[in-house]
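In the previous lecture we treated proteins in isolation. Real proteins rarely work alone, and many bind small molecules. This record shows how such a complex is specified: first the sequence, then the SMILES for zinc ion.
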Amino acid sequence: MKNICRKPHAGPYRCGALILVLALSACVSQPTDPTTLAQRYPIIDTHIDVPYRLFRNPADVSVSAPDGQFDYPRAVAGGLNAPFMSIYIPAVVDAAGNAYPFAESAIDLVEGVAQAHPDKFAIATCSDDITAHMQAGLMSLPMGMENGAPIGGSFEKLAHFHARGIRYVTLAHSRSNHISDSSYDPNEVHQGLSPFGRSLIPEMNRLGVMIDVSHISDKAFWQVMELSAVPVLATHSSMRKFTPGFQRNMSDEMLVAMAERGGVIQINYGSNFLHQASQNFSAARTAATKAYQEANHLADDDPALSEFRDNYTQNNAYPFANLDIVLDHIDHAVALAGIDAVGIGSDYDGVGDTLPTGLKDVTTYPNLIAGLQRRGYSEADIAKILGGNTLRVWRAAEAYARSKGVTVPCASS
Ligand SMILES: [Zn+2]
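The predicted 3D structure, ligand included, written as tokens:
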């Protein structure tokens, strides 16, 4: 640079202009290092199934725990600041009448992780906790309840779970429950929300508990759109356009309606959510397993069935999606609904060995960032996708609760 400026014809103005052009071209050709961006901006992943994983296979996630997709060292390396811990209640637990104690024990488990490692983790109960914990060098553990079954038809129980730190509730899971029908359950017992479910929406709004529309049926979704006074989340869903007929993902019309009301879809990374090839694989495996069961007259819970299923998976290469397909979902959602409508809900520790190449665990947020940069997203856009949009909805929920006289408790103050 100095030699160029010393050339006889290069006056101060031309030299300055040349430096400016070079500096600009350097900016254009070399975006900020993705790892730097991952550390700079809050990364909020709205769905990580650590509690249920630890319930099945206890491990210490404060140190390397490679049996799953999340642990503290890998999350720090990936720049993750706030993994929403999924307080997941399986439909069979609800059917057995045990949803409430099961949820309590899952919340106890998350609290136990934070209490055992106060130098690493802290429960987050308000949006400001995320940045406060970042500044204190702590990873936030906010909690969302996946399946509203533990609410048990009682506003008092909802208030109890709010007091324990639950900040969103996925209304149903794989079966219709007492609140809502499920996208996975062809038996639509309520034709959307139940009467209690309809009354629950304004009560969740009032308390500042965000509504998660992932997993519910389309009819229930449209009823939530009518009833909620606050923007909602789809904490771990992808775009149905890429998986036609898969009601667990969001249709274009649903996303547009949700975004018009300020809501955010957090894209799920499971390959079955991302492309048809994985859907087809799963359908073929289910059909083959059923044929095997019938041919051998096996009961539904016969261990030979899961063995057959595992062998099928090993002998028939699973069609993993990849980072580019995740980016296609983000591009499509942004094109339809705008840059303010998209976030991340990986479903790490919840979708097994179906994660896309390039996004296998919590170290890979920089890969996503690099992909977004290649697709032309600005630093400000990327910050919104990583967590800014989710924080905006969370703040809107808190502002509404305050307007109703409800105190928003923060763990950090
Ligand atoms: Zn789920």
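Summary for your notes: The longest strand covers residues 82-88. The chain has 18 helices and ten strands.
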